[in-house]
């Protein structure tokens, strides 16, 4: 009888230990956050606001790095391959994305938005400066259109719900709040840019296509869509003539782009030099300050309204 009791006790302890171990594993699996990776800042901002702390959010493109010249390291590539879902911009913005071998769901967000086709003059200017990208007739800066941001928010929210269906109501509430913010931004842009004395701005490379098309102003750029292209003497002369002809008051340049020529043009023509943030990525200082898409788009609006002399 003693032996039988010992054997029964042994199996009870073993069974209890196995049960506890299984419970712990289940709890660990439940506590483990899904990994979500994104490329551009707009995708990061949407995902951060909808998911908040419920996922491990990986920003593939580090803050302060030029999105056009970025090259991922093997270490980063290995990390991204473990993600549960990857959101990338597409439309030719991230040629380096093709180096990844995704074992998860990778979503090209350009498939869900309305893309702007370059007009004839824009395409010829782009082709002249960047033969490698001459085949691309699409403007990849589509997140500057608030309607596209809303479409992206819908897609990201649905994917997050797919990953964590138990958080559906929370995600939907966050989505509603985020889209409300976009509606308010769109309203501000429409009201402020509807009554302006000037109708043209100059920028180093044309990242303003979606905004200019929607709010009816013209953009003169030194290098079309190619931020890395070097403008010719002819381009510089053309822009300086446009500044004089159109009475342009402000020349915009961007972070991550060589600003020497733009600064020289501003000095020679006596116009104001200002930074415009097209949000392909943000600087390390902007990230440290915790600036959001909303914060930066409001700053952009303020600068545009001054450049166009809006009421």
Main pleated-sheet profile: 4 strands, parallel
> What do the pLDDT scores average to?
83
Strand order of the largest sheet: 2-1-3-4
What is the annotated CATH architecture of the largest domain?
Answer: 3-Layer(aba) Sandwich
CATH superfamily of the largest domain: Nitrogenase molybdenum iron protein domain
CATH domain class of the largest domain? Alpha Beta
Distance between the termini: 97 Å
Rounded Rg = 25 Å
Outline: globular
Q: What percent of residues are in strands?
A: 5-15%
Following the backbone from N to C, one meets helices and strands in this order, namely: HEHEHEEEHEHHEHEHEHEHH
Count of separate structural domains: 2
The helix tally amounts to 11
| Secondary structure category | alpha/beta
CATH fold-type name of the largest domain? Rossmann fold
Q: Any key phrases for this structure?
A:
Rossmann fold, globular, four-stranded parallel sheet, 10 strands, 311 residues, 49% helix, 2 domains, alpha/beta
Protein described:
This protein is α/β, with parallel strands linked by helices. The protein has two domains: 35-112 and 140-189, Nitrogenase molybdenum iron protein domain (Rossmann fold); 195-307, Nitrogenase molybdenum iron protein domain (Rossmann fold, 3-Layer(aba) Sandwich). It has helices spanning 2-31, 41-51, 74-80, 120-129, 146-163, 168-192, 209-215, 233-245, 260-269, 284-288, 293-307, and strands at residues 35-38, 56-59, 85-88, 105-108, 116-117, 138-139, 200-203, 218-221, 250-253, 272-275. Strands 2-1-3-4 form a four-stranded parallel β-sheet, with helices on one face. β7 (200-203), α7 and β8 form a beta-alpha-beta unit. The protein is globular.
